[in-house]
Each structure stands twice: as C-alpha cells, then as structure tokens.
Amino acid sequence: MSWIYLVFAGLFEVVWAYSMKLSDSFTRPIPSFITVVAMFASFGLLALAMRTLPLGTAYTIWTGIGAIGAFLVGIFWLNEPVNVTRVVAALLIIAGLLLLKFSSK
C-alpha cells in the first residue's frame, strides 16, 4: 500500500507544480487554491508512504515522479522545448527511480 500512496503523492506533486505555474505567482485564486490542496494531499500521502518505506527511497521517488511529470506537462501542455539533452536527462532520472524501486525490499 505504501507504494500506491507514494505514486499518488508524486502525481499530486505534478498537479501542484502545474497549478502553481497557472496561478501566476498566486495572483489567480482557483489555480492557487488547487496548488495548496494538491500540496497538502501530496505531503500527506508521502507521510503515509514513509511509515514503511525508507526515507531516501520514498523522498527520491516522490521528487522523481514530480520531476518527470512536470517535465511531461511542460512539453505537452506548456510547449516547452524538447531536445536530446533534456530527454536523456529525463531517461536517466527514470532509470534511477527504477533502480531505487528494485533495490528496495
């Protein structure tokens, strides 16, 4: 169950990062509200996951899901640039996350 909490915590991290971008420095109320709610959900689920998962594994995977998710949101919804260097960097993050997952008991 901890891994499920962790995945959803990472997905909520993507939501709050995206909604924070849309909030225009917290000047737009609805995206600002979504940001705060998603942050609380993300942190709460991370805390639940950390009950049984090691700190280093849980935190790294949480931030990795957020990083890759934000990377993809940036490309597909915000028209951020795609180039070989950025894609290779994202693939290296994914490889690191997989190694952590498979090295955990």
UniProtKB/TrEMBL annotation:
Record keyword Cell membrane present: yes
**Main localization of the protein described in the UniProt heading:** membrane
Alphabetized InterPro entries for the sequence: EmrE-like (IPR037185), Small_drug/metabolite_transptr (IPR000390), Small_multidrug_res (IPR045324)
Q: Name one Pfam family in it.
A: Multi_Drug_Res
The record lists the membrane-crossing segments as 33-50, 57-78, 84-102
Compartments it resides in: Cell membrane
Q: Which UniProt keywords apply?
A: Cell membrane, Membrane, Transmembrane, Transmembrane helix, Transport
Annotated membrane topology is:
Multi-pass membrane protein
Protein family? Belongs to the drug/metabolite transporter (DMT) superfamily. Small multidrug resistance (SMR) (TC 2.A.7.1) family. Gdx/SugE subfamily.
- Record-linked PANTHER family: GUANIDINIUM EXPORTER, SMR FAMILY PROTON-DEPENDENT DRUG EFFLUX TRANSPORTER SUGE
Name of the protein = Guanidinium exporter
Organism whose genome encodes this protein:
Larkinella insperata
